[in-house]
């Protein structure tokens, strides 16, 4: 833990952390030592980890990357934080992120952009960019992230690390600041599938405080890795993910080479089709902003968070607190979402988007009748230069063309390093059926 704290200090220019908590971390590390001395240690006892600053931490500022919550110190821990602490992991700090998890480059953070350790002139991806950079720079062996449309997998891909978005409902969202509640899931980020398995076993499980959390037993994901083989694994390659316009050739090349590893190991690789792939981004950008506009209405300057100076009346308090506290991307989402939900437009936008969401889910249901996992690129490009897409929201939104559909369908998916393109990491995405995280991790482990 001391070595980790020192490394974090030496790499402050990456801007991976919003808060570092050395005293608490050293106290937890000493408690872990004591547990080990008593013979009372599990696999995560004493392991230093970082939490994305979207997870509430008792007594530790939880900003969600926003000026709105710069002064917010939660009185309780998120479920995920609680579970990892109970497993003996030591929290060293809170990682940087896009504001309210809205972004794909970590440039919307009020605390400034995060730099990709592979090339500090490029972005680490987002929104869990701080967690990805911290793991990529080997500051911590693992970190938590959240994924609403790709925010764990896309930064994992751009930083050459591993990230898993579990099935919707597998991990409790209690204490995780809400962006789009029907899409948000927490998951692990690490350097190997095995480490993700260890973390997921600790994070997952039923929690009555999240009404969408599913009451299903949690397997020992790490123990399950041993019994799996790539031989005979049925791998589907969606033709739409390889033909898609705007996919860098170096990305497809690295992914095709990774797929060859599966083939050589005896996997049955076949082409499949997910015909509604191109509708995922437009559907997401109706549903996610709609849900966000509702979730973010709680930040009103009254109860907690930023409050403007000297309000003249209640309306002035609301308007100026929100106007000052939220950044541009967050305001854009609130406006789009409020529009899509307003009377007269609800049927045309929100309801229509929900119908197409079902079609996207049905595509996957059909695909999983013939394959065990679906493989393809995680992101269409490697890490791009800081600022390159910052002024073009549509270009930025397209960073998630391969990750968003799984959130809409509630499916688990992970990203692992496939290789390099132009000297920059490329991610391989594996998508599984609902609650099939064990098989996904097994396939990733076999590949690694
Ligand atoms: N990049 C997408 C967005 O900006 C997804 C973010 C996420 O998964 N939290 O909404």
Automatic annotation (TrEMBL):
It catalyses: L-glutamyl-tRNA(Gln) + L-glutamine + ATP + H2O = L-glutaminyl-tRNA(Gln) + L-glutamate + ADP + phosphate + H(+). The keyword Ligase applies. Gene3D superfamilies: Amidase signature (AS) domain (3.90.1300.10). Residues 1-441 form the Amidase domain. Its EC number is 6.3.5.7. GO terms for cellular component: glutamyl-tRNA(Gln) amidotransferase complex. Transmembrane segments: none annotated. GO terms for biological process: translation. It is an enzyme of class 6 (ligase). The active site is at 52 (charge relay system), 127 (charge relay system), 151 (acyl-ester intermediate). Keywords: ATP-binding, Ligase, Nucleotide-binding, Protein biosynthesis, Transferase. GO terms for molecular function: ATP binding; glutaminyl-tRNA synthase (glutamine-hydrolyzing) activity; transferase activity. Allows the formation of correctly charged Gln-tRNA(Gln) through the transamidation of misacylated Glu-tRNA(Gln) in organisms which lack glutaminyl-tRNA synthetase. The reaction takes place in the presence of glutamine and ATP through an activated gamma-phospho-Glu-tRNA(Gln). Belongs to the amidase family. GatA subfamily. PANTHER family: GLUTAMYL-TRNA(GLN) AMIDOTRANSFERASE SUBUNIT A (PTHR11895:SF151), TRANSAMIDASE (PTHR11895). Heterotrimer of A, B and C subunits. This is Glutamyl-tRNA(Gln) amidotransferase subunit A. It comes from Spiribacter salinus M19-40. The lineage of its organism: Bacteria, Pseudomonadati, Pseudomonadota, Gammaproteobacteria, Chromatiales.
């Amino acid at each position: 833990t001391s070595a980790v704290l020192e490394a974090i200090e030496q790499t402050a220019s990456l801007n991976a952390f919003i808060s570092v908590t050395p005293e608490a971390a050293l106290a937890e590390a000493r408690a872990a030592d004591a547990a080990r001395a008593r013979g009372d240690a599990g696999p995560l006892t004493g392991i230093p980890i970082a939490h994305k600053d979207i997870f509430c931490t008792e007594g530790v500022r939880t900003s969600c990357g926003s000026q709105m919550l710069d002064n917010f110190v939660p009185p309780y821990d998120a479920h995920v934080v609680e579970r990892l602490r109970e497993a003996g992991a030591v929290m060293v700090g809170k990682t940087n992120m896009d504001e309210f998890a809205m972004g794909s480059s970590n440039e919307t953070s009020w605390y400034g952009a995060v730099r990709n350790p592979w090339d500090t002139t490029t972005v680490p991806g987002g929104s869990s960019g701080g967690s990805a950079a911290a793991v990529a720079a080997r500051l911590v062996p693992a970190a938590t992230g959240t994924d609403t449309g790709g925010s764990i997998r896309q930064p994992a891909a751009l930083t050459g690390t591993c990230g898993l978005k579990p099935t919707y409902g597998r991990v409790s969202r209690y204490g995780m600041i809400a962006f789009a509640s029907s899409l948000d899931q927490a998951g692990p980020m690490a350097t190997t599938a095995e480490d993700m398995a260890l973390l997921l076993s600790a994070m997952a499980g039923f929690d009555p405080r999240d009404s969408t959390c599913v009451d299903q037993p949690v397997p020992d994901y790490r123990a399950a890795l041993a019994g799996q083989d790539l031989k005979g694994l049925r791998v589907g390659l969606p033709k739409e993910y390889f033909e898609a316009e705007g996919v860098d050739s170096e990305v497809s090349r690295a992914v095709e080479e990774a797929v060859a590893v599966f083939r050589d190991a005896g996997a049955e690789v076949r082409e499949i089709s997910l015909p509604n792939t191109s509708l995922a981004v437009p559907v997401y950008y109706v549903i996610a902003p709609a849900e966000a506009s509702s979730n973010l209405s709680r930040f009103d300057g009254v109860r907690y968070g930023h409050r403007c100076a000297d309000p003249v009346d209640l309306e002035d308090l609301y308007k100026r607190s929100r106007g000052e506290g939220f950044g541009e991307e967050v305001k854009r989402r609130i406006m789009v979402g409020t529009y899509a939900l307003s009377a007269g437009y609800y049927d045309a936008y929100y309801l229509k988007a929900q119908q197409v969401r079902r079609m996207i889910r049905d595509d996957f249901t059909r695909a999983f009748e013939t394959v065990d996992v679906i493989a393809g690129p995680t992101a269409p490009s490697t890490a791009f230069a800081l600022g390159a897409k910052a002024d073009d929201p549509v270009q930025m939104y397209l960073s998630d063309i391969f990750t968003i559909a799984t959130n809409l369908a509630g499916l688990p998916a992970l990203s692992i390093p496939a290789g390099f393109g132009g000297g920059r990491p490329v991610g391989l995405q594996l998508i599984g059926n609902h609650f099939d995280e064990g098989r996904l991790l097994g396939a990733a482990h076999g590949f690694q």
